[in-house]
């Protein structure tokens, strides 16, 4: 099962995002994400938040959609509340859409939510037109010859990094936190393998 959370960040290509949402078992709009859903022609299952980005009246314009309202003075962002809702609903794979944009603080916080999802036994990813970001805690397979892959040590050094199928392979390498060594590698085979022994990698599949 896959849940899609539509956030209030930047979305340019609505058709691209609408295709990602197709077939999702749960679609949640985090406040102003409801405006994006409207432009996509998507009817979400739930709209939640404090409704400072879109009005409750706008949310009520989706017939039959569950609305969950929170006070404006709260400890969590609307996106974190949406992640918690998805996890509590039993969803194991969560896509965050519209989770990046002009607010760097929100973008960084949303990347942190990938850790929250992982700690609860799920997998999460942030996707936009140019990027797909996710965490690696043991091993992963990426596909698509020519794909640009950046690997960043997250929450400390990452030990035992091994890369197969890449232009710049690694074998049992320690990637230190803050190092740019893992930026802009390229997949030379149709399938690439990434494995680590200790730590957490933030992987970003990017295209210009």
Helical percentage:
10-25%
CATH fold naming of the largest domain? Rossmann fold
Mean pLDDT: 95
- Report the CATH C-level class of the largest domain: Alpha Beta
Total of domains: 2
Number of strands: 13
Class based on secondary structure composition and strand pairing: alpha/beta
Name the overall outline.
Answer: elongated
The CATH architecture of the largest domain can be given as: 3-Layer(aba) Sandwich
Main beta sheet: strand number and arrangement? 13 strands, mixed
Q: What is the straight-line distance between the termini?
A: 30 Å
Determine the number of helices (DSSP H or I, runs of at least 4 residues): 5
Q: What is the N-to-C succession of helices and strands? A: EHEHEHEHEHEEEEEEEE
Assess the beta-strand content as a share of residues: 35-45%
Q: Which consecutive residue ranges, at least 5 long each, have pLDDT under 50?
A: none
- CATH level-four homologous superfamily name of the largest domain: Thiamin pyrophosphokinase, catalytic domain
**Radius of gyration based on Cα positions:** 18 Å
Structure characterization notes:
The protein has two domains: 2-129, Rossmann fold, CATH 3.40.50.10240; 135-206, Jelly Rolls (Sandwich), CATH 2.60.120.320. The mean pLDDT is 95. Helix 5 links the parallel strand 5 (93-97) and strand 6 (123-127). It is 23% helix and 38% strand. It contains five helices and 13 strands. By secondary structure, the chain is α/β, with parallel strands linked by helices.
